[in-house]
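Q: What would this chain look like folded?
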Amino acid sequence: MQNLTLDLIITAALLGAGLAMDAFSVSLANGLAEPKMSGGRTAGIAGTYAGFQFAMPMIGWFLVTRVAEKFEAFRPFIPWIALVLLLMIGGSMLKDGISENRDARGSDKSDKSDREAFVENDAEQIEKDAISSATRLGIGALMMQGIATSIDALSVGFTISDYDFKMALASALIIGIVTFAICVAGLRIGRRLGTVLAGKASILGGIILIAIGLEIWVKGVFF
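A: My prediction, written as structure tokens:
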């Protein structure tokens, strides 16, 4: 039981880290837009993302377990479905992150004066856009961000479908806690560094999710 619990904690924490990368990137942008964001507002925004990341896996778990109970023949396909979903999500994040970094490197090849002018103009435009969309981030916009950055977590219901309710709840709580910590860090970093880390975060998140998908598939098919 101790090994199972440790395995659950590690898996849930890694899932949380991978799934939170989208929310981390959004947090960077929100932090950039509000350099004087208060501690309470930081906790509220991060808590919203964490709440959605907690709820989505539980919704997915409930849906999958209800299906698996009624259609037992469906259960052997769960590792394959989890693999496909996490490969798709992780691959998409990896592709986006690589594309962002490639674009960034391409812009660095221009001469210094052009680059400085571009960065200055682009930074001003980013700041204006960010301020207009996120400086006074309303409840509605925050909810939309929360849904958009957590919808992928529904797939986690397939990865924890063999857990009972208490284990699934514990996994979802760990995912939520990890997301909260990562988003708080993103908001604070964004206030200082902007969105420079967004591409690297997507790459890291993609690698984590792909690795977890492969692990679940290997365990489900061969063990």
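DSSP finds nine helices and no strands in the chain.
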